[in-house]
C-alpha cells in the first residue's frame, strides 16, 4: 500500500518560516552593530565638542557686516551652545539698527489688566537727528502672515556722537496668538514689509514679586550678576580674561553674561563644564556684532548692551531660585574692588542695608599698566595687583552703574534709571580700570614711559593687594597658570589672544 505524500504547501511554509527566522536574526545582529557604532560615534562627538573643532578661529570675529544669517551658519557648523536668542544688530534702514526684542507677558499675575494684549519693546540705536517714522508687523506662531501693530517710540539716552538709544514699541490690541517675531519698515508704500528683517522676541514678565523685607534690616541674600562687554580696543588676553572672572567670583559674583566676539565659545564651554566642587559660576555667552565704527560708537553700544542685560535678567521672577538682585556692566579691564570688605554683599550691607537705592554709581580710577610695579607686590602675581597708583590723566572712562532689581517691581521701572541714584564712596568700593595710558592724540602703542608718568598726579590705592593671595590660590587660576586650560606661551611677555 502506498504512503500518502505530504502536501508541497506545508514544505514551502516551513521554508518561508526558516527564511523569516534567518532574516530576523540578521536584522537583530545588524541593529546591535548599528547601536554599538552609534554610541561610539556619539562619544567621539562629545569629546570633539568638549575640546573644540579646528577652523573656529576663522569665524570667531563678528565685526561689522556680521548678521543673523552668518550666525545661523556658525551655529550649524560649530559646537556653540547659546541657550537663548542672541541679540544682533540688524539694519532697519540706513538710520536705525535694531538689537533685541522683548515681549511683555501679562499671564504671570491675574491682577494685571493691560491696555494691549501684546507689547513688544525693541532696543534700537539710531541717528539723533532723524525722527523714527515706521510701521511694525508682529509675526505669530504657526502663522505665515503677520499682524500690523501700533508703532510708538521713546528716547532712552542722551545724544552720543549723533546717535541715540531708542525703544521701538509695537503693540496689538487683540490676542491673535503667541508672537514670535517683530519687524519694522518705513511708513510709505514703496517698501515691501515682507522683506523687512525679523527680530525674534524674548518673553519677559511685566512684574516681579518683591521679596519680603525685615523691619530691622533687609537680610535677603544678594545675587549679583555682571554683563561683560569688550574693551574700547576690543581685544582681551588670556590673562585678563581669567583674572576678571576669577577675581569677581572671589567677591561673590556667580553669574556672568558675556557679549564679545573675540572670545572663543569653546573657552566658555570648557569653563562651564568644570565640576561644581571647583566652581559654582554660570557663564552665558553671546557674540557681539556692531555695524558701526566701534571706537566712536562704544558708549552708545554699551548703553544698548546694558539695557539688553537688564531686560534679560528682569524676565526671571523673584519666586524663582537663583534670582539676580543686582546687575553691573563692566568691560574686561574694569574691576569692582572692595576696599574695607572682602565681598560685594558686605559692601551693600554697609552702604544700603535696606536696598532702597535703584542705582549705585562707582567712579572709575585709572590704573596705568605702564607704571612701575609696586615694591610690595609679590613676584609672580598678576599685573592688577602690582599697579597700585591711580592717575589723574585724560583717558576714556565710564562710570560704573550697579542696578538694584529690588527697587524695580514693574517692567516700566527699567525705563527710569535716573532717579534714586547715589555714589558709593571710594572707602567702600572702587572701580579700577587697568589700561595702558597714552596720549589720545598720538599713536604710541607703548604709552607714556615711566619718566613721563611721574608728571601726572597720582595717588596710592592698595585695595587690590589684599586679594593677591586668594587670586593666585584659586583652583581655576592655578589650572590656567599650569597650562591645564590652555597651552601657555613660553614667552611670559607675549599675551596670546583667545
UniProtKB/TrEMBL annotation:
Membrane-spanning residues: 15-34
GO molecular function, one term: glycosyltransferase activity
Keyword Lipid metabolism listed: no
Record's bilayer topology term: Single-pass membrane protein
Localization of this protein: Membrane
Signal peptide bounds: none
GO cellular component, one term: cytoplasm
Alphabetized UniProt keyword annotations: Membrane, Transmembrane, Transmembrane helix
Name assigned to this protein: Glycosyltransferase family 92 protein
